[in-house]
Amino acid sequence: MCEAYFPVDSGLGLEENFLSLDDILMSQEKLPGRAESALPRLAFALGPAAGTGDSIPEGSKLEIPLWLAKGLHDSKRRIISVELPKIYKEAWRTVFSADASVVDLHKMGPYYYGFGSQLLNFDNPENPEIAQTILQTFISRFRGIMDSSQNAYNEDTSALVARLDELERALFRAGQKGLNDFQCWEKGQASQITVSSLVQNYGKRKFADMDG
Fold first, then answer.
1. 140 φ, ψ to 5°?
2. Distance from CA of residue 101 to its chain's centroid?
3. Contact present, 174 and 198 (Cβ < 8 Å)
4. Which residues does the UniProt record annotate as the domain GINS subunit (predicted)?
5. Among residues 106, 34, 102, which one has the least CA distance to residue 63?
């Protein structure tokens, strides 16, 4: 039976993959910001925080969805300015550099890595430090995540994944699947290995070329 939806991986780096449900959800995450000029007919997109009427006055403080902030951001024209969410500021970067494993990433933001990478689209002097912290956080937490996924067989893993962001949860699931597949193989329950259809088709084409 065909699946109704085939999962699509998230984009990497500065661009989202708009076929990915995770990226669609991530693009709805809010950024604190300020209207540097009047924004006509945009109040509907920002909800109650934009105040009354259909336009946003200059100087208004905003909570801007990432997708809209990227669309309005222009380094030449000061339309909006955005601020760093607190988890990417210097105080939290210090916490991550001390011991990233103790941080509940899901509570602080379920798309910590993806959302942080998107922040690099905005002109911010702290971008190099943000990028370095994101990378080092992933490196320092990766081994613990994979070790946990390999040591939890047929167990309730809800407590293990509760503190992980969505990327880390996907890695944990991949580790669990690899462990389960290996256990099935050891018990002789693995599916029979068959020749890939790509290999079969390649072989047929090769023989056809030789006959020609």
1. -70, -25
2. 18
3. no
4. 89-185
5. 34
Neighbour order of strands in the sheet with 61-65: 61-65, 30-35, 80-82
Angle (deg, nearest 10), helices 166-186 and 112-119: 140
Q: Are the C-beta atoms of residues 107 and 162 closer than 8 Å to each other? A: no
Mean pLDDT in the chain? 81
Q: Where are the domains of the chain?
A: 21-44+57-193
CATH of domain 21-44+57-193: 1.20.58.2050
The secondary structure of 22-91 as a DSSP string is HHHHHTT-EEEEEESS-BTT-HHHHGGGG-SSSSB-TT-EEEEEHHHHHHH--SSS-SEEE---GGGSHH
Distance between CA atoms of 173 and 40, rounded to whole angstroms? 45
Q: How many helices (H) and strands (E) are present in the chain, helices listed first?
A: 10, 3
Question: Rounded CA gap, 177 and 155, in Å?
Answer: 13
Burial 16-47 (b: 16+ CB within 10 A, else e): beeebebbeebbebbbebebbeebeebbeebe
Task: Say what the pTM is.
Answer: 0.76
C-alpha span between 93 and 127 (Å, rounded): 12
On whether the CB atoms of residues 34 and 59 are closer than 8 A, the answer is: yes
In the predicted model, is pLDDT for residue 1 greater than 50?
no
Q: What is the pLDDT of residue 54?
A: 78
